[in-house]
């Protein structure tokens, strides 16, 4: 067995591994969490793989290592609990676990927490336990640390009440899981004088990750539960999420309860009301070259022929790589790991020069990522032979050839090849680093070696079984409407959401979702199931009648479209 050294795709938790300078954003989160009285909600927004989780982890590390001992931090991964009927229950349980751990540490003397905060946390723990276990709790409660009031909490009755309320006509604004919990917690918290923050007031900072990976109804239910139950004095919530994805989730949930004529997208306004501090992570373009160079100096690239060759080829391409993959750190990790796996899986008939193979694979994968499918197929096809030859002569010769093409993209009198050349020119103008890639040393090897280039493309498509758009950030998506229509029998559909049934993997290495819009007897419905689950249509409550599949998308989560 030969060891294969790959890059791990894990969030950063310590500053010594912060290659993207995320510390500034983490410090804003930790500073706001500790300094703001609460209730307060922070949203760290960014696309797939941009470092949202790392910002939360760094912020949590800063708080845990600070002198603010009357602060409890809680980490909650929403995706791990999305199959729970009431996702607030494991969230509350996580809060209880951390409160208990801090109380035990303070009593043993390993941590210093003020006595008044200890009493408040102890009583809060009892109330939250009552919520979880459905027992009668009667106690003097402080949240989170000052003042006592006598309260009663019958969680069983709250659950019963929830079951009634959840049948209401508007499922988007679903009522709280525990009907009286908000009032119980609100009445237990005193109101300190305005402008004064007592240092003895304990605080609970809850970090919630991967909400955008949950199914839409679960994500919305958790947001509603937090908003209507746990938005209390002393509670700070910090979310990491892809805002457009969650906005669409909210719109999907709303559309299910309304006729098309009544539906108005409200996801953006909904989130604006929840997050008092929206923190959008910017592009990593200014820092990406430094990040790539630092990664290539890690220990795993100092041993093994494949790793050494990869580092030697990649290092000169640091600026080009960033532009090709939209400066996405997760895409870079996957690019590097795919290249290492490519080299290990190469059949004997391929070129033995490892460095040359890295160049061929790297340029192929970067172009597959940076160009549209049609543009890539045109560039490697026979119609672009003259363009490739011109590019072999360097940037200026390549640009002169491109400049000969007409500038208008949509003239119907042009052939498809002419229109593709115009589009390719426009892409190179918008993303000049792709042109720099082709005239680099690795790019020249790719242009000159027709046989090697074609073997690499065939290997990626046939041996690695990667669809044409699989390399793009966040994975890809596939329209499977026709395939599902063919599986309908007697106005019913039962199908496993997996790559075999749906005709391929549009997003390699990513857990996908199947989102289907359909109608039963003319009434429109939307359903989303996760990869590996079984799709059953019609659903209970849909009624009976003619089943029509309107649209179906099998995709990575952030490919869910606004037209669902």
What attributes does this structure have?
single chain; 564 residues; alpha/beta; 3 domains; 13 strands; 47% helix
Question: In words, what does this structure look like?
Answer:
By secondary structure, the protein is an alpha/beta fold. The protein has 3 domains: 17-239 and 257-280, no CATH class; 285-463, no CATH class; 477-559. Helix content is 47%, strand content 14%. It has 23 helices and 13 strands. It has a 5-stranded parallel β-sheet with strand order 2-5-6-1-7, with helices on both faces. Helix 7 (216-230) links the parallel strand 5 and strand 6 (235-241). The longest helix is centred in the first third of the chain and has 21 residues, at 88-108. The chain is globular. The chain starts with 22 loop residues before the first helix and ends in a 9-residue tail after the last strand.
Helix vs. strand class: alpha/beta
Low-pLDDT windows of residues = 134-181, 192-200, 560-564
- What value does the Rg take, in angstroms? 27 Å
N/C terminus separation: 48 Å
Please provide the count of β strands: 13
Layout of helices and strands, plus pairs?
Blueprint: H1 23-35, E1 40-45, H2 52-64, E2 71-77, H3 88-108, H4 115-133, E3 136-141, E4 149-154, H5 155-165, H6 181-188, E5 203-209, H7 216-230, E6 235-241, H8 243-256, H9 267-274, E7 277-280, H10 285-296, H11 305-314, H12 318-324, H13 329-345, H14 354-370, H15 373-380, H16 385-392, H17 395-403, H18 416-430, H19 432-439, H20 441-448, H21 450-463, E8 477-479, H22 481-485, E9 493-496, H23 499-502, E10 513-520, E11 523-530, E12 534-537, E13 547-555
């Amino acid at each position: 067995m030969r060891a294969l050294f790959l890059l791990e795709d894990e969030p950063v938790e310590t500053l010594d591994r912060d290659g993207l300078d995320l510390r500034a954003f983490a410090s804003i989160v930790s500073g706001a969490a500790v300094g703001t009285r609460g209730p307060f909600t922070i949203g760290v927004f960014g696309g797939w793989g941009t470092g949202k989780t790392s910002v939360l982890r760094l912020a949590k590390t800063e708080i845990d290592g600070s002198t603010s001992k009357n602060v409890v931090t809680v980490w909650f991964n929403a995706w791990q609990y999305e199959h729970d009927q009431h996702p607030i229950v494991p969230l509350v349980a996580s809060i209880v676990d951390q409160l208990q751990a801090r109380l035990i540490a303070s009593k043993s003397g390993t941590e210093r927490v003020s006595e008044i905060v200890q009493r408040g946390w102890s009583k809060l723990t009892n109330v939250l336990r009552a919520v979880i276990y459905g027992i009668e709790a009667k106690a003097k409660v402080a949240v989170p640390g000052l003042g006592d009031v006598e309260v009663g909490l019958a969680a069983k009755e709250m659950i019963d009440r929830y079951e009634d309320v959840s049948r209401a006509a508007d499922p988007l604004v679903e009522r709280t899981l525990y009907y009286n919990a908000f009032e119980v917690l609100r009445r237990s918290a005193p109101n300190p004088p305005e402008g004064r923050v007592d240092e003895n007031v304990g605080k609970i900072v809850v970090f919630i990750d991967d909400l955008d990976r949950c199914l839409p109804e679960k994500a919305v239910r958790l947001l509603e539960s937090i908003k209507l139950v746990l938005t209390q004095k002393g509670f700070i919530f910090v979310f990491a999420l892809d805002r457009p994805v969650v906005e669409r989730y909210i719109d999907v949930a709303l559309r299910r309860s309304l006729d098309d004529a009544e539906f108005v997208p409200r996801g953006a306004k909904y989130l604006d009301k929840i997050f008092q501090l929206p923190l959008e992570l910017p592009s990593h373009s200014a820092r990406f070259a430094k990040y790539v160079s630092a990664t290539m100096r890690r220990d795993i690239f100092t041993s093994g022929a494949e790793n050494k060759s990869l580092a030697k080829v990649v290092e000169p391409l640091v600026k080009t790589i960033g532009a090709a993959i939209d400066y996405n750190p997760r895409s870079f990790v996957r690019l590097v790991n795919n290249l290492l796996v490519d080299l290990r899986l190469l059949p004997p008939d391929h070129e033995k020069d490892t460095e040359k193979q890295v160049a061929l694979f790297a340029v192929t994968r970067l172009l597959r990522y940076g160009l549209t499918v049609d543009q890539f197929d045109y560039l490697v096809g026979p119609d672009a032979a003259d363009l490739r030859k011109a590019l072999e002569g360097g940037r200026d010769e390549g640009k002169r050839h491109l400049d000969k093409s007409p500038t208008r993209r949509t003239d119907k009198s042009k052939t498809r090849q002419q229109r593709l050349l115009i589009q390719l020119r426009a892409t190179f103008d918008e993303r000049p680093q792709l042109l720099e890639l082709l005239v680099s040393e690795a790019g020249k090897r790719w242009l000159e070696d027709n046989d090697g280039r074609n073997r690499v493309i065939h290997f990626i498509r046939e041996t690695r079984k990667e669809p044409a758009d699989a390399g793009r950030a966040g994975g890809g998506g596939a329209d499977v409407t026709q395939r599902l229509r063919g599986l309908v029998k007697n106005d019913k559909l039962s199908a496993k959401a997996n790559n075999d049934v749906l005709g391929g993997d549009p997003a390699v290495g990513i857990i996908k979702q199947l989102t289907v819009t359909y109608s039963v007897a003319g009434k429109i419905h939307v359903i989303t199931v996760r990869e590996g689950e079984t799709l059953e249509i019609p659903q209970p409550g849909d009624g009976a009648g003619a089943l029509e599949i309107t649209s179906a998308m099998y995709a990575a989560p952030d490919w869910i479209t606004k037209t669902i």
